[in-house]
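User: tokens in, sequence out, please.
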């Protein structure tokens, strides 16, 4: 896991147009589908689990859904977490869109330290939930080596900032359920210091669609956690 410095205030600014430039664009935030740690009852995080057979089928449905949504002649930028389950998802998407995925370790899921890959019950017995008030960003989860919310926010904000510096109409980000929250928070311009409570709950195999219009340059969240494409009957 790449090390992330935890700066004191002020934090880096969110990637609004004054930081990354203004342009009409659409960003599709994808969460990987079913992985082996889901069905085995193991802690995920940076534990490098693979897609299940069902997850592979779901990745193909994700890819087909994105192919149907994007113009055939559109240039597409595809970036993914470097963990196996997201890489395999991005590979399916890349084959459908005719583009090679770029790897960015900053888009990994939150690390649960020594709990990663252990039975979920092991983590549940040690996990210290964050307080309702107070410094939730730096809260210690009670597990050695686990990232704080601030650790995850800083690296995902940085990855999103770099992504939005690309001058391209359509971008696809393949990441994980918790990390996806900070892609969306960065997109809407939420300051890092305000991200202690934010959550955009999204299921596995989902697509969240973000849009910046070319006239007002508003940052829209058009859909969150869409999984209609995973319907077996579709």
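Assistant: Sequence out:
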């Amino acid at each position: 896991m790449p090390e992330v410095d935890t700066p004191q205030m002020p934090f880096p600014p969110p990637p609004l147009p004054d930081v990354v430039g203004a342009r009409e664009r659409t960003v599709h935030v994808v969460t990987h589908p079913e992985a082996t740690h889901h069905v085995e009852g193991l802690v995920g995080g940076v534990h490098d689990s693979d897609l299940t057979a069902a997850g592979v089928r779901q990745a193909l449905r994700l890819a087909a859904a994105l192919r149907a949504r994007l113009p055939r002649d559109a240039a597409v930028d595809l970036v993914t977490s470097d963990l196996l389950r997201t890489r395999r998802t991005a590979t399916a998407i890349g084959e459908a869109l005719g583009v090679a995925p770029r790897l960015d370790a900053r888009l990994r899921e939150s690390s649960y330290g020594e709990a990663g890959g252990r039975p979920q019950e092991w983590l549940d017995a040690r996990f210290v939930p964050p307080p309702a008030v107070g410094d939730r960003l730096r809260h210690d989860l009670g597990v050695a080596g686990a990232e704080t919310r601030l650790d995850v926010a800083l690296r995902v904000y940085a990855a999103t900032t770099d992504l939005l510096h690309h001058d391209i109409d359509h971008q696809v980000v393949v990441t994980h359920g918790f990390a996806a929250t900070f892609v969306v928070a960065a997109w809407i311009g939420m300051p890092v210091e305000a991200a202690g409570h934010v959550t955009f709950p999204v299921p596995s195999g989902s697509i969240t669609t973000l849009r910046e219009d070319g006239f007002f340059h508003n940052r829209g969240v058009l859909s969150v956690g869409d999984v209609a494409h995973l319907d077996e009957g579709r």
